What does this fold into?
Amino acid sequence: MKKILIASLALFSIVGFYSCKKNREVVSTVVTTSAPTITISGSKFYSIQVGDAVPTVSATAYDSILKETCPLSLDASTLDNTTPGLYVVPINSKNSNGYKSSANVFIAVTPIDNAWDLTGEYARTSNGAIVNVTKVARGIYEVDNVGGAPTLPVVGYFAQLTDSTIDFPSQPTEVVGTVDCTSEKLMVSATDTSYSWVVRNAFFGTATRTFVKQ
It folds into this structure.
């Protein structure tokens, strides 16, 4: 009986030893996958004349999980200040764990006079859908339904470059991903104002869409 008791105690000691050893080898690692939140404190829309310097953009980046303010950088590498157009310029940030986030500002390179204002209601000629165009900066406009599709309103931005030229560049949207417009035209007369373009996105067809001011 004594031998059995000793053997049982020995077995318990061995099991206990390996259990303790195994527990000591377990390491708990918590990975924080937060990213900075970028807040644009100034405007999202800027207009410069051809040849002007890139404007100063006011923004901050903060990671509320890590409780740290993160550095910001404006990536103006795709902006050509010698060529008129609307440029979508990203602001990038990265936290101390290496996780990144970005936001966009719109910079128009245009000589258009600030007196121009295309703001108003427009109707798409093929279906009568009403589209609202709003001036947000010199030469820059927001359109609340890029395709004139009543069931798929997509917000986008374009720039007026001359009295007959507009530019709708490739840009991200919250509804259908990236949208681009081609063959953009602006038609202004004493009695009518209209514009047209082809929407490039998988949710839209390839037809030219024309919008007439009401």
